[in-house]
Every structure is written in structure tokens, then in C-alpha cells.
What does this fold into?
Amino acid sequence: MRIEEEQKEGWDEEKEAERMHCEKLEKESMQLGKALAVIWSEIHCLHDDIDSIMDLIRNQRNLEGYVGFANLPNQVYRKSVKRGFEFTLMVVGESGLGKSTLINSLFLTDLYSKDYPGPSQRIKKTVQVEQSKVLIKEGGVQLTLTIVDTPGFGDAVDNSNCWQPVINYIDSKCEDFLNAESRVNRRQMPDNRVHCCLYFIAPSGHGLKPLDIEFMKRLHDKVNVIPLIAKADTLTPEECQLFKKQIMKEIQEHKIKIYEFPDTEEDEDSKLIRKIKERMPLAVVGSNVVVEVNGRKVRGRQYPWGVAEVENGEHCDFTVLRNMLIRTHMQDLKDVTNNVHYENYRSKKLAAVTCNGVDASKSKGQLTKSPLAQMEEERREHVMKMKKMETEMEQVFEMKVKEKKQKLKDSEAELERRHEQMKRNLEAQYKELEEKRRQFEEEKANWEMQQRILEQQKLDASKTMEKNKKKGKIF
Amino acid sequence: MADTAKTTHPQPAGRPEKGAEFGYVGIDAILEQMRRKAMKQGFELNIMVVGQSGLGKSTLINTLFKSKVSRRSVMPSDEERIPKTIEIKSVSHDIEEKGVRMKLTVIDTPGFGDQINNENCWQPIMKFINEQYEQYLQEEINISRKKRIPDSRVHCCIYFIPPTGHCLRPIDIEFMRHLSKVVNIVPVIAKADTLTLEERDFFKQKIREDLRVNEIEVYPQKEFDEDSEDRMINDKIREMIPFAVVGSDQEYQVNGKRLLGRKTRWGTVEVENTAHCEFAYLRDLLIRTHMQNLKDITSSIHYEVYRVRRLNENNTHPSDQPNGHSNGVPTHEVLSHEM
It folds into this structure.
């Protein structure tokens, strides 16, 4: 027992010693930590000093110290994020080329789902333009995406002018923006212009159809046109290459200006852009259905002979399209729309207004007129036109009133005439009747007289007979 | 020779079999004689392919007959341009298999449905078909006829439907409505490797419904089924039309066998595999089982309709055309016939 107790005591003592040792170590480490922190902060200060000195050395004529406008991009970024972005995408192509599926795959939403089938599920008799807006949020950034669909394009037997509704739509959106821009109070300017037009080419394997060429020729200076080969899983890699070459050749032949990727100075980006340029037009496959391939889940189309993966760069160019459209070039598309296509439209529209009814010599001067004066003139013109219209209408009105009066008078006269005639008729009849009555009276009087005479005669006769009778007995 | 074999056979046998042999006449030997005659004469088949450019028509014909018989293969310089108006190009080949010779004519219609305005694009084709009937009619009513009239009538028209996956387009409906009355139409879904199996079933259903709504009778027509056996077979076929086909004239190695197919990065589409596409059914229908039926319906029904119409036209205007071409009988007798 004693030995154990002694041992225990020994252990306790050891424990105590150890504990104190630990405490000491802790204190030392804390001190070391503090010392380290001090050293680190000193190092940071030194870094800053070195930076400022370097700046000073580099740009002697610039500022002393750090002003802070290097923070500007951050501010712009934060403001845009707060405001949110707008993007309008138009999809054009014959029905059945997979436009709705591609939109669903691009934005990973079911814009067109089974409950709300897209306009392409029914064949339309005329080309219509339909737009759907959707709000997408990702990582704090908000995007108002407008998809413009053109069901019925190229489906009819006679497709001449099927591009006209599309052109009208694009122009109307540019016009809205122009009006909003020229307004006095322009606090909210929603940008509904079409920023990009995806044109779907059917995978025939030969070349462009006349309809494709016509459409692209008419729209390449109004909107950014990006041609795509639809349903590309129908082509083998060799056929796809041939087809792309053929399409690019035809596009150059007909001088169609499709959307060109801007060249940047940095090496990395330009390599990427060159790769994209080689693969134009992009051959895409769309799918929002997830299938399993070798244990991993991918989006693709399941065939009895294999699975065509949508996001596999070897299978199709969908990832290229998505990166280009959303991740790298969305802003550039909007800029080109704003700076090139919209300005084209604007100058054409305003030039048309100024050259309205004015000969060429004056028009040059008027082109440089300020828009305010322009608007004044327009207003005056408009007012004059209104006045003229008013006077015209008044004249017409008066004429009509006169006519009506005349007609009424005529009919009144007519009525009067008839009335007179009827009265005369009646009087004539009356007179006739009177005549007859007189005649009748005469006759009656005659007859009565005759009757009296007869009676008188009779009386006389009877009297004479009596006389004779009295006298009588003569013979 | 079958009949001589039969008659010499019973000689070595005993007496009782001689009695049984008296019942056999040998009428069924006529089948053998017909076969020999047919093999000597050879067959003719005229197929027309109609569809927009780029749907794989030429490739399908090459695949059907396992040799390069289409227009593209014959013409050395094919510019891939789209012609401004519809042209009708026909190419003839003599092919032979196991001693049976066939004169195959493939009639192609480049330019169909390719323009912006496709109104009346079926008219050149109708005209062509009627011209072939007219040619045959003229030969038939000739005074001194040839022993065998060359048959250039179109026996079958394969119409290619683009694989949109939704429904028939107005141009398809118009074309088939006009032409199902003059020729046998076999609709097929072109480039079917673009549709998954569910999409394919849905599309076929929609097409069948559209055909029914528009009262379009495609081959095999219901009204021409002769008996219940025919009806059964044809019903099975009718459930499957339109066939979803894929064409290819290139061979690839699959599982140790060389097969016709299309090789993509995710798999190889085998043309003759019925799990992949329905090309095999189409080939069986056109060549192995119903070829004679196609020709019969063309000659006995479509051609007869045309003939009746034509001859009635002739009879109603006897004064307009002094018919030197009619069957040798002077016109006044024809009139008295009518009376």
C-alpha cells in the first residue's frame, strides 16, 4: 500500500510538473505568435511602402500616394450587378430543328416544357413573332432574358417574304429604343433591342438553301446573325466538316456579314477565338435529358447505338456556343448591337425624316440641324397637317349637310304636290257627288210633281166622274 | 426439267404405284415454265424518289440495291447546286442476281421543295407520271403492237419526310394528296438517326394521324387488299409506315463483321439492324415481297384509271381529233357505239 501511495504521489508530482511545463510552453508560444504578428504587420507595411515607392519611381509625374480610382471597375461591377442585365435572343429556323430544345439546354431552364409547349409544336399558317421573358439568377447576378421565337418560318408552301415579320419586329424594337432615347424624360430606358439572332440551318449536308441565303442577306445589317447547324448528331464528323466548309464558302460568296468575333490583344483569348472561328458555323445538339454513360451522368440523347453527349466537345459544338454566347461575348454582342446595328437604323431613320419632301440641296444642310429644331419643325408640320385635315373635313361636312337639306326639300315638295293632288281629287269627287245629288233631287222633285199631277188628275177624274154621275143618268 | 423427271420416276417401281400415278397430270409444272420465261425475259422496275435536297435519297437508293445506281454516282461532275426549277432525271441500270435480270430505273427529282416559293412543285412530277402512262397507252392502242411494250410507268414513288419530329408540313400533305391518286406512294422518314426511339414513335403516330385526317391513301392501300391473308400482311405493314430509314453505302467493321453503317463519335448506326432503323423492312417490302404487287397495282389500277379518263376525253371530242391512233375503227362507228 505504501509503495502504491508513494507511486501515486510520484505520478501526481510528475503530472504537476508536466502541466506547468505545458503552461510555460503555451505562454511562450503566445508570445512567439504575438511576435510573429508584429513581424508580419511590419512586413505588410514594408510591402506597401515598397509599392508606393515603386509607383513613384514608375510614374514620377503622377500622384503622391494612393487615390483609389483603381477601384472603379469594382464599382461599375457592383452597380451592374445591382441593376441586373438584359439580353434578347432571337431564334429563327424551320420548325422541327430543335430550337426550343437548344434554348432549354443553353439556359438550363425549361422555357418550353410539356405543360407549356413552345410555339413550334404547332405549324402556323403565317409567320408570327412571339417573345417570352424569363428572369434568371445565378451567383447574385440577375439576367432578364427575352427569347424571341418565330414559329411558322419557312413552313408554308410559299415562303416568299416570310422574313418580313422578323424584320418588322427588329425595326419596331429599335424604334422603341429611339423614341425612348429622344424623350424628354428618360429615366427608365429598357433595352429591348434584339442583341443576337441564332439562325438554324437544316443538316442537309450539301449547302445553304435559297431561303437561308435570302434571310441572312436581309438581316445581316440589322442584327448580329450567328448561323448554327441544327441537329448535328445526324452528320458524321467528315460530313460535318464538308458541310461547314461549304456553308462558309457560300456565305462569303453572297457577302453575308455574320457576327465576327473581336480580336483581342492577349494571346490566350486570341487562340480561343481562332479556334472558335475555325469551327464556324457551330454544329449543335440540344438536350435537357440526363442519361448515364459509363457511370457518369451527362446530358445527351440516347440512341440504340450510343449516347450523343451534348457537353462533349468531340461530339458537337454546344459548349463552344454556350461559352461564346454567355460566358465571354454577351457584352460584346450587346455593344455591337448598340454601336453598329442600332446606329445604322437610327441614321437611316432620321435621314429619311429630314429628306421628307425636301430637295437634295437643302437636305445636306438639314442633316446637321439640331434635333430640337427638327422636332419643332415636325410639330409645326404636324399641326398644319391637322389644320388642313380639319378644314377639309369641315368642307366635306358642309357639302353633305347641303345635300341632305336639298333632298329633304325635294321630298317635302313632292309630298306637298301629292297632297294637293289628293285634295283636288277629293274635291272633284265631292262635286260629282253633289251633282248627282242635285240631279237626284231634281228627279225626285219631278217625280213628286208628276205624282201630284197624277193625283190631281185622279181627283179631277173622280170629280168629273161624280159630276157625270150626278148629271149622269142621262142616257 | 421437272415434268420429265416426274414421268420417268415411277417406271422402276412395282405395279400398284403405276395405278396411283395415273391421277397426276402435271399442271403445276406451269410454275416452272413461268419461272423460266420470267428469267429469260427479265423484270423492269421504275422507282421515283421525291424529297428536298439533302435528305439522303441517292444514298438510300444505293443502299437498297447495294450498288451505285443513283444519279450522283453516274454523273461525274455533280455540282452541289440547287436547280432553279424542278428537273426530272432518270437513270437506268441492268442489274443481275442469281440469274435473274432486272432493268432498274431510278427517277430523281432534284429541286423539289427547295425554292422559297414551292407552289405547284408537284406539277412537273404529275406531268411526268402522266406522260409515262400516255406513252404506254399509245403503244397499247397502236394497230401493230410490239410483242412486249416497254414499261416505263412509275411503279413506286418513295417520298422522303424530313425528320422534324413534330408533324407533316403543308408541302408534304399537298404533294401526297395530289399524287396518291396516280401512283403508289411509300412515305419514309429520312435521316432517322436524328430521332431517339420515343421521338420516332411519336412522330410516326402524328404522321399517320395527319394522313388519316387528310384522307391520303399510301401504299399498301386498304381498298386494294384482295383477301384476308393480304389484309393481315398489309395491316402489319400499315402499322409500321412510315419507315424510319438510314442509308449508307460505306462499310464498317462492327463486332468482327463488315456492315453497312454510319460511324459517329458515339457509336455506329447499323443500317441493316432492325433495332437501329427500319431500312430492312423497307427493302423487304420493296424488293423481296411486294415488288410484283406494286407493279400489278400500277398497271391494273392506276393505269386503268388514266386510260379510262383519256379514252373518255377522246370520245367526248370526236370532231377535234381525227383519231388515226384509235383502234383502227373509224370515228363514225365509235359514235354509233355510244348511241
The interface with chain B takes residues 94-97, 120-121, 123, 155-160, 202-207, 209-211, 214, 231, 233-234, 236-237, 246, 301-309, 314-315 of chain A (CB under 8 Å). Residues 114-120, 357-366 of chain A have pLDDT under 50 and may be disordered. Residues 371-471 of chain A form the longest helix (101 residues). The CA atoms of residues 244 and 280 of chain A lie 7 Å apart.
